[in-house]
């Protein structure tokens, strides 16, 4: 299987568990500047919301050989309405339809929103020139545990193992190398976390 570049949504990929657990404040990520944030405060505000931008960064790095910082992608996407910041500072997004317009107009990508779509259907497309940004529960980093719900996080699905009926994906918030890059999960396990929606991209 072709190697796909991996990028976490947090710049210090070896500190993800500390960051999401609050042991290391987002603003204290020692590599925050790599994100393209203007300051630690901007990084702290956005880094937990940009899993979709990390997925896009991986896609662009592989298919267009472009390495664009996640915060730069976020700002571009926000200009299209892909993120909305409330008066209280709350962040709504990733909003799929504006995101699809954004990647079409800025990067020439052909994508479509898929809703109510079982993972088996996506599995059938993965060797036909498609990749999928899938909505899953963030607990997918510990697949042995039952998630409380489905959705809330995005992963980049790009491959399959036909012998084992597994899909292969990068998880922007994985906390170990094994849960970050080229994660293999069987369809039944993935489905426990999968919200039956996401963004299908033609490669």
From TrEMBL:
List residues of the Peptidase C39-like domain.
4-172
**What Gene3D superfamilies does this protein map onto?**
Cysteine proteinases
Q: Report which superkingdom the organism of origin falls in.
A: Bacteria
Q: Which InterPro entries match?
A: Peptidase_C39-like (IPR039564)
Protein name per UniProt: C39 family peptidase
Query: Which organism was this protein described from?
Result: Brevibacillus choshinensis
């Amino acid at each position: 299987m072709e190697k796909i570049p991996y990028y976490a949504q947090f710049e210090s990929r070896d500190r993800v568990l500390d960051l999401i657990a609050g042991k290391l404040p987002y603003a204290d990520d020692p590599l925050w500047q790599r994100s393209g944030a203007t300051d630690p405060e901007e990084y702290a505000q956005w880094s937990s919301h940009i899993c979709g931008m990390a997925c896009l960064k991986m896609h662009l790095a592989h298919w267009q050989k472009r390495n664009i910082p996640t915060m730069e992608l976020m700002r571009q996407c926000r200009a299209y309405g892909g993120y909305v910041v409330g008066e209280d500072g709350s962040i709504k997004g990733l909003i799929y339809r504006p995101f699809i317009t954004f990647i079409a107009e800025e990067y020439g990508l052909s994508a479509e929103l898929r809703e109510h779509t079982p993972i088996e259907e996506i599995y059938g497309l993965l060797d036909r020139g498609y990749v999928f940004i899938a909505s899953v529960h963030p607990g997918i980093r510990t697949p042995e545990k039952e998630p409380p719900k489905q959705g809330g996080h995005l992963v980049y699905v790009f491959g399959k193992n036909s012998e084992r009926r597994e899909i292969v994906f990068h998880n922007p918030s994985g906390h170990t190398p094994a849960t970050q890059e080229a994660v293999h999960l069987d369809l039944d396990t993935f489905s426990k976390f999968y919200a039956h929606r996401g963004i299908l991209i033609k490669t």
